[in-house]
Amino acid sequence: MNKYNICLLKGDGIGPEIVNEAVKVLDCVADKYGFQVNYDEALLGGSAIDAKGTPLPQETIDKCKASDSVLLGAVGGPKWDKLPGKERPEAGLLGIRGALGLFANLRPAVIFEPLKSASPLKDEIIGDKLDVMVVRELTGGIYFGKRGRREADGEVEAYDTEQYKVSEIKRIAKVAFEMAMKRNKKLTSVDKANVLEASRLWRETVIEMSKDYPEVELNHLYVDNTAMQLVINPGQFDVILTNNIFGDILSDEASMISGSIGMLASASLSDSSLGLYEPIHGSAPDIAGQNIANPLATILSVAMMLKYSLNEPKAAEAIENAVNKVLAENRTPDIYEEGKNKVTCSEMGDLVCKALA
Ligand code: NAD
Ligand code: IPM
Ligand code: MN
């Protein structure tokens, strides 16, 4: 029997609630498909600051490295918002992405059939189906460039630096081209090459790499235009390749294609099979502790883990099918529509398990 060691980083706010439901579903699917999952837990973000005085304890990095895969809830919250940048919960998240070399972040914006009417987009814009894969560079760019404050002309100036090496662009572009090859062979590279030097190098490098993928239809869009195109004509996109900060923003926007940010899963991948899986949303402090968060983004992140790190594609597909089935009748408040059953976070986890059985 295959055995997998999963490190859980429950995090802050709704993090523990949604991770508990995802674990419930992972246990159900493991039973059904005959593999075993062992869990370890580690602290990240605000909970780590409170317990250990740092958002990313060394023990957390060690436990993640010793595991087959990592499942994360979310970090952050008002309690820690006044801390200096390097001490904030979010610095822990950037730190673990860097420490595990998780340079490729896959964020699939898909619409589940029963949720078509929950999407804020009109039916004619959604069309038959929507399935956009955002490939976000995750360990470079302005998130990891030089930043600080200095004196300038007698006042304080703050700076953050957008910077990319050719090798960093190449490795993420490779992921996106390979992804496009497995899908509809269409790749849109998103940048701001009309203004930013790092974007010009990005575009040149992607064009150079496209020679190795003649079957992939490549186009380039500026990020401002992309933001608009995503709501007016999302069907034009197959794979979107973009940098760290544009990917962050565009994936929240793309999540609304699916009806709610509570639906969008993600996989953060490295050169090895070790990956970190998490919903794209945050710790939602406004609804934490009420058992009303949507756990499906985290549950679908488990499906991505089974597909990309654990090589259990059948179990992954079973979770996606179970989610589709459950959504026909049941909704957490963020995706609620009249005539459906309004369910809690934990009830949603139970229902997905039941649909798996
Ligand atoms: P957020 O994603 O936490 O919340 C935005 C809105 O979406 C809120 O109204 C929230 O209630 C709702 N929402 C989010 N997830 C939901 C879910 N699963 N079900 C139902 N509703 C959901 O973004 P924010 O409010 O900008 O950030 C809150 C905190 O989370 C901040 O500290 C931020 O830094 C952090 N954050 C962390 C991550 C992460 O850990 N990966 C991602 C984004 C934001
Ligand atoms: C995300 C989040 C993080 C990011 C923050 C919390 C550091 O918004 O995972 O999308 O910007 O990458
Ligand atoms: Mn984000």
Automatic annotation (TrEMBL):
Swiss-Prot/TrEMBL site (Important for catalysis) positions: 143, 192
EC number of the protein: 1.1.1.85
Compartment annotation: Cytoplasm
GO function term, MF aspect, one: 3-isopropylmalate dehydrogenase activity
Binding site for Mg(2+): 224, 248, 252
Keyword Ribonucleoprotein: no
Official protein name in the record: 3-isopropylmalate dehydrogenase
Organism: Ruminococcoides intestinihominis
